[in-house]
Input
Amino acid sequence: MVVWYQVIILAMICNIPVGYFAYKKRSLTQPYGLITAGFVGAITFLAHPLYWIMLLAFFGSSTILTRYKNTNKLKENALKLAEKGGQRDSKQVLANGGIALIISSYSIIKWGFWYDNLNTSIAFMITISFAVTNSDTWATEIGVLSKRKPIWILNPLKTVPNGTSGGISVLGIGASISGAAFIGLIYSISLTLTTSLHVLFIITIAGLTGSLIDSLLGATIQCMYHCTVCDKITEKNYHKDCSSECTYKKGVKFINNDLVNILSVIFTLIIFNNFILYLFI
Output
């Protein structure tokens, strides 16, 4: 029998070293990024440790990849176009883990702490949400290193600079598939061999789909700005490298990269709803 206060204490104990790691590596802004990440970590842990492990897998791998070849010129130039840097703030934490947070909270309300049946639609949806965010993060962090310029998702005959929202490359697609499969493998260990193989396939495809949806939304509705100094299109309304205020270029003004991340997860869950119903109901 699970004793509620013991689970809460264990959640706090397990998240302390993670928070310390994030503090030392400066992976999260202080104090709000750390607090928000700690809250998301605690709730996912209380729903089930496996969800927490998937969160750690996403956070740990993204932290490593953010620092991988961070002095590479291609990556440096790409970061100049991106809205966010390597340090995640509270909004970015919720953009990446907010959907999993909501579903985990629902799981706790419905079944309590550590519901032992992981072969459920709830567990599958949480896994897909992490697969999408991890897939997109790996695609971004590795894809920007592509020596071939990405193609524009709306026009395959057009190339765009590395780091452009809506740009896709072979390297980025490969990283996207690997990132989704990584999360899928973690979830699959809780299932039987027969079930895990086709679930792993679905999760990998779902993660890739979410990453492509993210690129599509980034190319169409995400708010983009124009720096008049360097004449580049950027996600930032202020271009620090040029010390210049940027002018609105296109997209919906209130839709930034964080909201695009959330929408890509939601749309992916809607698209794969039939698979979820087929597998678990």
In short: The chain has a mean pLDDT of 86. The beta strands are 151-152, 155-159, 167-168, 224-227, 232-234, 238-239, 244-245, 247-250. The first strand starts at residue 151 and ends at 152. The radius of gyration is 19 Å.
